[in-house]
Amino acid sequence: MKVLITDHDPISFDHLQQVLHGWGYESEAAPDQAAIWYGLMQGEGPVIAIIDCSGPGLGGLDVYRNIRATIKNRNIYLIMLTARTDARHIEEALEAGANGYLARPVAESDLRICLENGRRLLELEDALALKSTRDALTGLYNRAATIEHLGKEMVRCQRERSALSVVFADLDRLQDINDRNGHLVGDAVLQQVSRRLRRALRPYDHLGRYGDDELLLILPACNAAGALEVAERTRLAVSACPIKTEAGEVQASITSVTATVSDRKNVPADTLLQLAETAMYRTKEKGRNQVGLANVYCSLL
After folding, report:
1. Which of 52-61, 127-136, 278-287 has the lowest mean pLDDT?
2. Angle at the Cα of 115 from the Cα atoms of 110 and 116, rounded to 5 degrees
3. How far apart are CA 100 and CA 131, in angstroms?
4. CB of 215 within 8 A of CB of 237?
5. Which of 106, 206, 228, 231 is the most exposed place for a label (fewest CB within 10 A)?
6. Does CATH place domain 2-133 in 3.40.50.2300?
7. Given its phi and psi angles, is residue 88 left (phi above 0), alpha (psi -120 to 50 degrees) or beta?
8. pTM exceeds 0.70
9. Bond into 105 cis (ω within 30)
C-alpha cells in the first residue's frame, strides 16, 4: 500500500518515511496542493495521505475540503499531521474531510493505529463498492454498472476518435433449461457461460449482465469487423462443449448482435442499446446460436 506524505519538517518527514518503509509501505512526497491532488488522482496512486496542512501554500484545512470536492473516483483515507490537539481544531479538520489525525511528535504506535484504521476502512469501502456494481449470481457487472461503463467508453470513443463496439448476447432458451432442470441448474449454466465469455475477451473489455439471460460485451477500440470476430469467437466458446451440471450435461448457446459506432457517429448509449435489442429480435426470427448485425450505425473503420 502506498502512502502520500506532506510534511514541512524535513526531519519529521524522513522519520515517517523510514518507519513506513520498515513496515512495508511505499511512500510518496507531495510538497504542495498541486502535488497532493496529482498524486491522489492517479489510478495506482496512494490511498492513504498524511498531510501537514499548516505548511506554506497548503491553505490550511481547505486542502482537505479541496480533496473531497475534486477526487470522487477513488476512496482515500486522509490523516492530518498537526501540532495542535485542541478539540475544536480536530473537530474542524474532521468536518473538512480528514479521517483522523496524528499529533506531533508522532508516536509510532499512533501511526500504526492510524494506518491500520485506514487500511480496514478502505478495504470495507472497496468491498461495498464492488458489491454495489456486481451481479450476485455471475460476478459480472450488474445492469447499472454496465450501462455506466458503456457511457464512459462512448465518451472516450469521441475523445480519442476511435471505434467502439458492443456485442449484445442472449443465452438461448434459458427458460426451457429452468423448466426442465430447475433454476439452480439454469443458474449454473449462466455462471459457466459468463466464465467462458470472460475468458474469450481482452483484459480491457467489459462484460456485464444486462438482463436475466442477456449479457453485454463492451469492446473499446474495436471496429465492426473486429466485433464480428469477437461475437463469433464467444459464440463458439459457449457452444464448444456441454456444461456439466448436477442434472447432467446441458448444451448451451448464445445468439448475439454486434453494433459499432465511431467518433463520427454521435449516438446516445440508450439509442445504441435499443438498436441492438431490436436487431436481436430480427436475428432470433432466423434461429438461435448465430450472430446478427445492428448495422444502422455501423461504421467499418
Report:
1. 52-61
2. 100
3. 26
4. no
5. 106
6. yes
7. alpha
8. no
9. yes
As annotated, the residues of the chain forming the CATH 3.40.50.2300 domain(s) are 2-133
Report which residue type is found at 236.
L
Amino acid at 64: Y
In contact, 238 and 217? CB cutoff 8 Å = no
Nearest to 19 by CA among 39, 34, 5: 5
pLDDT digits 0-9 by tens, 190-213: 999 999 999 999 999 999 999 999
Determine the Cα–Cα distance for residues 149 and 141; give it in Å rounded to an integer: 9
Specify whether the CB–CB gap between 158 and 266 falls below 8 A: yes
CATH number for the domain formed by residue range(s) 143-293? 3.30.70.270
From-to residues of CATH 3.30.70.270 in the chain: 143-293
pLDDT tens across 68-100, in order? 998 887 899 999 999 998 999 999 999 999 999
Using left for φ > 0, alpha for ψ between -120 and 50, and beta otherwise, residue 194 falls in alpha
249: enclosing H helix or E strand? strand 248-250
Q: Are 268 and 164 in contact (CB under 8 A)?
A: no
C-alpha cell at 92: 474542524
d(CA 38, CA 41): 5
Residue closest to 189 by CA, chosen among 272, 250, 277:
250
